[in-house]
């Protein structure tokens, strides 16, 4: 099947995109501190099921440009990059899967461009309004964000001792190796942290956006995620006007697409096969 690396100019920046397969389009949006490589265990199964996969390196990561201004990493700019990518490739509508910051970009796309999104799968991160209302336990889990927003200190502490701290983020050693390779490049750690610096002070993130999402959504949460609690995902059902399907994966960490790839892949294929008009699954809230 056809696989290629595309280099596109979107919003004045170079964006590198992995394109694989043919058929209905599935866009995979990574988060911190990843590149498109975090989706390496999803691409082949989606291709085999008859989908075309687009996995971009979001601005600041991998083979894509990393602008210096902190404000360049506001989520509305990242979402605009994704829409520009679809426009350049002549794609009117796509299924979207997002993780971490990529999940927040996906939620924003569902709110502001629902006509472009066939179905949405969010991994780990619930609707921003549900996150904002998840209470003290979630705020305590999110305390690391304050550390990430301190210029210089965050960069030095995360890279010190051969990325000692980041080696403990996930049990998947290969993923840690990919982080080190990308984030050793000059300016790349700062670009990754700028997602926090550009968006967290504005209210993590668009939490005043409570209008119903008019796209079918599946939220998948993993029980060993230290940063995000179950409440913020389960309560996202209140902000989805179509159907919201909730799935929990026990024993997986925050990078569930890597550490629980078989379960994640099975859920993606099942949800997509049901189609945007599919009946609410028995497991849904």
List keywords for this structure.
285 residues, alpha/beta, Rossmann fold, eight-stranded mixed sheet, globular
Instruction: Report the count of strand segments.
Output: 8
The proportion of strand residues reads 15-25%
Task: Quickly count the domains.
Answer: 1
What is the distance, rounded to the nearest whole angstrom, between the alpha carbons of the first and last residues? Answer: 37 Å
Please identify the top-level CATH class.
Alpha Beta
- Fraction of residues in helices? 25-40%
Q: Mean of residue pLDDT? A: 94
Main beta-sheet strand count, sense and barrel state: 8 strands, mixed
Structural class by sheet pairing and helices: alpha/beta
Element-level helix/strand string = EEEHEHEHEHHHHHHEHEHH
CATH architecture: 3-Layer(aba) Sandwich
Shape: globular
In angstroms, what is the radius of gyration?
A: 17 Å
What is the count of helical runs?
12
The low-pLDDT segments are 279-285
CATH fold-level label? Rossmann fold
Oligomer designation: single chain
List the strand order in the largest sheet.
1-2-4-3-5-6-7-8
Structural overview:
With 285 residues, the chain is α/β, with parallel strands linked by helices. It has one domain (3-274): 3-Layer(aba) Sandwich (Rossmann fold). It contains twelve helices and eight strands. The protein has helices spanning 40-48, 75-88, 101-112, 128-132, 136-141, 144-148, 153-163, 173-183, 188-199, 230-234, 256-259, 261-274; strands at residues 3-10, 13-20, 25-29, 52-56, 94-99, 117-123, 217-222, 244-249. Strand 7, helix 10 and strand 8 form a beta-alpha-beta unit. The termini are far apart. Mean pLDDT is 94; it is low at 279-285.
């Amino acid at each position: 099947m056809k696989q290629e690396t595309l280099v596109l100019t979107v919003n004045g920046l170079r964006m590198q995109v992995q394109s694989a397969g043919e058929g209905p389009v599935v866009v995979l949006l990574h988060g911190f501190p990843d590149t498109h490589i975090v989706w390496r265990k999803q691409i082949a199964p989606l291709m085999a099921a008859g989908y075309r996969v687009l996995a971009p390196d979001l601005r600041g990561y991998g083979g894509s440009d990393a602008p210096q201004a902190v404000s360049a990493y506001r989520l509305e700019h990242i979402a605009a990059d994704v829409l520009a990518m679809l426009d350049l490739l002549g794609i009117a509508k796509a299924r979207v899967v997002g993780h971490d910051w990529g999940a927040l970009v996906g939620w924003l796309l569902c709110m502001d461009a629902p006509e472009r999104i066939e179905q949405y799968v969010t991994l780990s991160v619930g609707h921003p309004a549900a996150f904002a209302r998840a209470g003290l336990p979630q705020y305590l889990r999110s305390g690391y964000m304050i550390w990430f927003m301190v210029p210089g200190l965050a960069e030095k502490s995360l890279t010190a001792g051969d990325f000692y701290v980041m080696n403990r983020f996930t049990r998947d050693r290969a993923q840690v190796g990919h982080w080190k390779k990308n984030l050793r490049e000059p300016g790349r750690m700062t670009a990754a942290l700028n997602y926090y610096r550009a968006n967290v002070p504005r209210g993590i993130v668009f939490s005043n956006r409570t209008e119903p999402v008019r796209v079918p959504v599946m939220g998948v949460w993993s029980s060993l995620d230290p940063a995000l609690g179950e409440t913020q995902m389960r309560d996202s059902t209140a902000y989805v006007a179509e159907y919201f399907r909730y799935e929990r994966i026990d024993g997986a960490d925050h990078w569930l697409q890597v550490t629980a790839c078989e379960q994640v892949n099975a859920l993606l294929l099942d949800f997509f096969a049901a189609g945007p008009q599919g009946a609410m699954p028995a497991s849904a809230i």
